[in-house]
Sequence to fold (311 residues):
Amino acid sequence: MKTNCLNWALILQLVWPAPLLAQSRSAPLQNDGNGSKKTAADSSVYKILNRWRAAVMSGDRAELGALYSTTPPARAQTPEGNTQDPNEEPTFWSALASRGLIKFEPKVLEIRRPQPGAISVVLRIELMLGTAPGAEPYVVSATQIWVGQGNDWHIYATQRSDLVRNLAGRLPQPATPNTDLYPPPKQAPSEIEAALSSAARDRKRILLVFGGNWCYDCHVLDATFHSKDIAALIDANFHVVHVNVGDYDRNLDLADKYEVPLKKGVPSLAVLDPDGKLVFSQKQGEFESSARLGPEDVIEFLNKWKPAHKT
Fold:
């Protein structure tokens, strides 16, 4: 997926003023009970999303407006261009109720912390508009940057795609996208080396999946790999490595090495032999749109590129 990729880093560069850092607060650390630490902002993401979702569903313009920053005023990048009108987003989202909004499901694809006191969230929002039985499915991609102000979090900057018809896909859809599906970009070389080491013993091939947590089609492909009809085929023949491309600005050397043209979109795959030799790489973004694929296409690909035999 490339055309629906919303670049949180671009938003940050366009609208993030240095003085805002002095106003924002860093969220305190909490222990998750497993010996690791996470910020209280993790739970805040879902709490404010639930408030935002409820306000959108009700068409409550005032409640929506209260979720956006007023000092400084929230800014938005829409398909029509950039705007500094803080009413842009509350007006757009609240108007959906008058169009017969009967379903509104924001799915969190990625959470980042680009600055202290700031959270960037990448969303895929699935909704239904109209009256039953004539309601139609739509989807919109969005990125929101929230900042801590006082004792609360407010949406400071946003970017969204066009509202488009949601084409029915034939591949399994993830119930809850894994926001950690793609590890930090710097881990890719070591994960490839680990996969090669394992492949030297079990003679499986390595399947490199270039993409990012913000890419919904990447989540769909991973759900497909774990589906009951395909999981055994993957487990018997491949070591899967997810190569994080950031915002199309990371691991470009690996994409070049394995002849994966990222300009064609992601997910994009490459297959390696146990000795690291490139066997195949996708050149035309064949898996870039999950709506074009069915389970039979994925199975055909895996059977074609699985090792002929393992000795």
Summary: The longest strand covers residues 136-149.
